[in-house]
Amino acid sequence: MDKTLHIVGGGMAGSEAAWQAARLGVDVVIHEMRPKVETFAHRTGNLAEMVCSNSFRSDDHEQNAVGLLHWEMRQAGSLIMTTAGEHRLPAGGALAVDRDPFSEAVTAKLLALPNVSVSEEEVTELPSDGHWIFATGPLTSGALGKALQQQTGAEALAFFDAIAPIVYFDTIDMDTAWLQSRYDKGETEEEQKAYINCPMTKEQYEGFVDALLAAEKTEFHEGETAGYFDGCLPIEVMAERGRETLRHGPMKPIGLTNPHNPEQKAYAVVQLRRDNALGTLYNIVGFQTKMKYGAQTEVFRRIPGLENASFARLGGIHRNTFLNSPTLLDAQMRLRARPNLRFAGQITGVEGYVESASMGLLAGRMAAAEILGHELPAVPQDSAHGALIHHITGGAEAKTFQPMNVNFGLFRPLEGLRGGRRGRKDRYKGYTDRAKSVWQEWLAAQEVPA
């Protein structure tokens, strides 16, 4: 069998898998159909292009599961995490990046490796031989999706990912809005002022909800269903669940004080997060939408401070395909019926940039070990990586399987620690301490580059 590793898809998972395998000495070909074959959401042909958001979410590796995943990936020499650190933007304790320079840097680093090449041809069939990782993400092409359906004997599951709009900073009224991270979180003034906040009175909030509910929405194509992932709900779908839903979700006013009117508490607050290093673009946090473009500009300009806003990008919606991994994949992320094929990233049923890249990290190392004839130790279940891979390859209920972010609910319980909200801080620290220990042991046992 050819010892070349073929990776289909050059997103977060595919890029990370290629990096890990190539640095272990394996020849890698990345098959990325862009820019020859375009998708609804992508704008460039760069690898690791960020589509929905520019945030990798919390960087707190002691009290947050995704922050722990960041830490573990850095320990493993992650391309995605290293490059994210080099292009970091202020985000009040979160890890947000300047998206275009980030993807350009990931592309340059991979192409600088002598054993990595990129093929721009679309892969439409499942190869019968060779070593392959499919990391095609939420926008798996129709032809490849049909091939997967034929192989698995089941309908591919699908939900919809919605994209938030981006606003030009110089069109935001800063006499109404103000800069502040929630609870002034962050170690520097820049971090503590990483978000733009637009306040609403009760009357303005009620009018905004009414406009959302009345706005014209994108129609679904025949055969599509609206099975949304709860972590990425369109703003209008949240509004349909109850008039107060938004005020307790992305528009919650807690932890914020309006310096223009410090005595008056906002009834709701819309936040915008910096989207590029220049600070010229801000995305509306949590405002993924399936409203039509004309309706978006009308509705979003009802937000105080955005009355004259210009949009660099309006929101959108696209289909997101994923496997029923608990029934289809083994512990090595291989398709049980075709063990020469591995899967990684969002197509496996993880949700989020970080989770996708982390599954690419594991798939790349697993494939490299197999090609090189090495035995890779089992991924420790008590690590963040282990908790995720265990969930998607057997820990989840197959009948109700849905995409999952990393969270402490996936971790095995720790004995002797208090449950409930009051014991949460000690419990989370216990999870992260245990995870770091077993992860470092796992890496040390492999004797590979960090």
TrEMBL record:
What GO terms in the biological process aspect are recorded for it?
tRNA methylation; tRNA wobble uridine modification
* SUPFAM superfamilies found in the cross-reference section: FAD/NAD(P)-binding domain (SSF51905)
Q: Can you say where in the cell this protein is located?
A: Cytoplasm
What transmembrane ranges does the database entry give? none
The protein's enzyme class: transferase
Q: Which Pfam families match?
A: GIDA
> Can you name one GO molecular function term for this protein?
flavin adenine dinucleotide binding
Q: Which residues form the MnmG N-terminal domain?
A: 5-374
Needed co-factor(s): FAD
Give EC number(s), comma-separated: 2.1.1.74
Domain of life, per UniProt, equals: Bacteria
Q: Which Gene3D superfamilies match?
A: FAD/NAD(P)-binding domain
Q: Which reaction does it catalyse?
A: uridine(54) in tRNA + (6R)-5,10-methylene-5,6,7,8-tetrahydrofolate + NADPH + H(+) = 5-methyluridine(54) in tRNA + (6S)-5,6,7,8-tetrahydrofolate + NADP(+); uridine(54) in tRNA + (6R)-5,10-methylene-5,6,7,8-tetrahydrofolate + NADH + H(+) = 5-methyluridine(54) in tRNA + (6S)-5,6,7,8-tetrahydrofolate + NAD(+)
Listed GO cellular component terms? cytosol
Keyword annotations of the record: Cytoplasm, FAD, Flavoprotein, Methyltransferase, NAD, NADP, Transferase, tRNA processing
> NCBIfam families recorded for this chain?
gid_trmFO, PRK05335.1
Classification via PANTHER family: GLUCOSE INHIBITED DIVISION PROTEIN A (PTHR11806), METHYLENETETRAHYDROFOLATE--TRNA-(URACIL-5-)-METHYLTRANSFERASE TRMFO (PTHR11806:SF2)
Entry's family note:
Belongs to the MnmG family. TrmFO subfamily.
Q: What does the UniProt record say this protein does?
A: Catalyzes the folate-dependent formation of 5-methyl-uridine at position 54 (M-5-U54) in all tRNAs. NAD-binding protein involved in the addition of a carboxymethylaminomethyl (cmnm) group at the wobble position (U34) of certain tRNAs, forming tRNA-cmnm(5)s(2)U34.
Name listed for the protein in its UniProt record:
Methylenetetrahydrofolate--tRNA-(uracil-5-)-methyltransferase TrmFO
What lineage, starting at the top, does this entry show? Answer: Bacteria, Pseudomonadati, Pseudomonadota, Alphaproteobacteria, Rhodobacterales
